[in-house]
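pinned: reference chain
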Amino acid sequence: MLTDMPIEKLREYRGSGREPQDFDDFWQTTLATSQAFELRVTVEPVESPVQSVRLFDVEFSGFDGQRVKAWLRVPNASDGPLPAIVEFVGYGGGRGRAEDNLFWSSCGFAHLYMDTRGQGATWSRGDTSDMAAAGARYPGVMTAGIESPRDYYYRRLIVDAVRAIEVAASSQFVDTGRVTVLGTSQGGGVALAVAALSPTVGSLVSYVPFLCDFPRSILITDAFPYKEISNYLAVHRDAEANVLNTLSYFDGVNFARRSTVPAWFTTSLMDPVCPPSTVFAAFNNYAGAKELKVWSHNGHEGGQSDDDIRIAIQLKANRGPERSE
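pinned: its C-alpha cells
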C-alpha cells in the first residue's frame, strides 16, 4: 500500500529538519583533518575465473587513517581512461566477493565498490572494521556515537567515501572528468553527501536514498534501520535534542542544498524503509540539474535492473538528467 503523502503533496514537500549554522565549517574541518593522513592506496590483482573483467583488491586510508577495503573492476578490453562509477553499499552489507556486481564494469565503466566499515554481516560480507569506540548504542550502527556529531558513525563512513573518490581519481583507468557516485538506500544517502563534499564528482545516482529528513523518518516508519534511532530514544528519553542535533549534520536534505552536479534520484511510493516524502525532501531541495523516477507500485527494492540499465545508457551517452516530478 501507499506509505506516505499523496503525490501532489510530495512534489511540494521540502523537509522538516533544521540546518546547523556551522554545517559547512563542520564538514570543512572534518575533511581537512582527514587530509593529514596519506591515502596510501594499494591495488592488487585478483585471480578469478572471470575473464571479461579485471578485478583488483584495493585498500586505502579512510577516516583517521584507518584502512578501508574496496574492489576495482575494469573491463578487460580497455586500459582507460574510462568513465567511472564509485558505488557505496546499502545498510548491513559489505563489499562482498570480487566477482559480485559485474554490471557496471561489463558496461564499460571503471567500477570502484567501497566496503562499509563495521558492516557486512547481514546480506553481503565486509572486510573493514570500524575502530572507533562509540559508547552505548542500539544494535546496528544508526545510534553509534549519536549524541555528538564528532563521534557519530556516519562521520567516519562519509569521510571514507570522500577519500574513495580520491582513490578513483588516482587510478590510471579513470577519466577524472567523468566520475559518478552511486548507491542504493544507505549507499544512496552516502553518495548524496559525497556529491556535495567532493569537487571531483561529476554526477550523482541516488536510488531510494536513506539518511534523509531524519526528524520525519524516525517518526513515520516502524521499519529498520530508522527504528534503531526511535528505540534508542525510548530508553535514552532525555537525549532527543542532542540526537536530532547530531543527525542534522548528516541529513541528505542539507547536503542536497549544496550539490550542483547532475543527479538522478529514485523513490518508491510503497517504500516503508525510506518513506517517499523523505526522498522528495532531498530531491526538492537539490541545487543542481535533477531527475526523479517514481516507482508507484514498488517498495524499497525500487527499480532494480530497470534503473541500472536506464542510467547506464544515459551515462554512456554523456546525457544529463531531465527535470521530472
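why pinned: The domain at 7-316 is CATH 3.40.50.1820 (Rossmann fold). The CA atoms of residues 162 and 194 lie 6 Å apart.
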